[in-house]
Design brief:
CATH topology of the largest domain: ph1033 like fold
Number of domains: 2
Order of helices and strands: EHEHHEEEEEHEHHHEEEHEHEHH
CATH architecture of the largest domain: Roll
Number of helices: 11
Structural class: alpha+beta
Distance between the termini: 40 Å
Helix content: 25-40%
CATH class of the largest domain: Alpha Beta
């Protein structure tokens, strides 16, 4: 099949922009305004050094190499994919034109863009084969996706059956930081583990994490919960502030503004809210949370897992049983 490229940056921050503007893009705004199609890697490395005094050679080589690939190796007609860690979805499309500098998007740290025709169906990470998940774990901004992982992604995006044979293809890892690679892959594997929990266990995991953060919790029994699955507070009764009211939605799709309004409707003025949606949130949901009168935090699966990793040592035995992890030490 035609080559497929992964283009992403800053933990999927640009996913919605890419989809809504029908583009892919990269940053490195220090030197990309002067970068041109046809420049060699050496010219781009020198340009990067000139624009960023004191830059380490390894960083210059890695950044300039990815810019070079975006300018010179990607072609119109190539497939392209980008990833949202927040929603755990991939967007697949076809490159529709040449690279160009984008001064109108530079303020958002997107300096070079290419037009893309995105396929309408987004691909849920959980639907992919494990070998495909593993091969998509690179921390690089621009890299070629292995052929079988590309076939797997494209089949799901086009609503076709999953290919029978999924064999991980060797990728070009010349500029990959191996430690960052291990960390990124481990984080995604933990997300896979957490995502596989049923709703009841997910609720217990969130409660256990809040206990690890210093709160005492009350977990609502199965049934009508009146918009609250967990109450967390210093005293365990909800009498002392802060009283945190928690709603947990597990893999039911992105929560919209109406769900946020319904949750906020039952809150008291002294409450604090935490809404956990492993399926993510829409832009309107984030807007609704930002303007809420009651302080409200929104946790996606990515937020939940990163917080779990940060507080794992403080979690109790039952919480560790839900998500068993092993510590590994690497050079700082």
């Amino acid at each position: 099949m035609t080559r497929m490229w992964m283009i992403r940056g800053e933990a999927g921050r640009y996913y919605d922009d890419f989809r809504d503007k029908n583009i892919v893009g990269i940053g490195w705004i220090e030197f990309t305004p002067k970068a041109r199609v046809g420049m060699s890697r050496e010219e781009l490395i020198a340009l990067y050094h000139a624009s960023t005094p004191g830059l380490k050679q390894g960083s210059a080589v890695s950044g300039a190499s990815q810019v070079w690939r975006f300018l010179n190796e990607i072609s119109a007609g190539d497939w392209v994919v980008t990833y949202s860690p927040l929603n755990r979805t991939y967007l697949v499309g076809k490159v529709a034109g040449d690279a160009r500098h984008s001064p109108e998007l530079a303020a958002d740290d997107i300096a070079l863009v290419r037009p893309v025709q995105w396929l309408p169906k987004e691909v849920d990470r959980d639907s992919l084969a494990q070998t495909s998940k593993n091969s998509l774990g690179s921390t690089m901004t621009v890299f070629v996706v292995g052929s079988t992982a590309a076939d797997d992604l494209l089949a799901h995006a086009q609503g076709q059956p999953t290919p029978e044979s999924v064999v991980e293809e060797e990728r070009d890892e010349a500029t990959v930081d191996p430690i960052a690679e291990v960390e990124s892959l481990a984080l995604e594997r933990i997300k896979d583990l957490v995502s596989a929990l049923n709703w009841s266990d997910m609720q217990e995991l969130v409660a256990g994490l809040l206990r690890a953060m210093g709160y005492k919790t009350q977990v609502s029994p199965v049934g009508a919960d009146r918009g609250r699955d967990i109450i967390a507070s210093p005293d365990g009764f909800g009498f002392e502030n802060p009283r945190i009211v928690v709603e947990v939605k597990h893999r039911q799709g992105a929560m919209g503004s109406q769900s946020i309004r319904s949750f906020l409707g039952g809150r008291h003025k002294d409450d604090r809210g935490l809404y956990v949606s492993t399926g993510g949130f829409t832009k309107d949901a984030y807007y609704e949370a930002d303007r809420a009168q009651v302080p409200l935090a929104l946790w996606t699966l990515d937020n939940l897992v990163r917080t779990l990793v940060d507080h794992y040592d403080q979690t109790d035995t039952e919480t560790k049983r839900l998500v068993p992890l092993k510590r590994m030490y690497v050079p700082a």
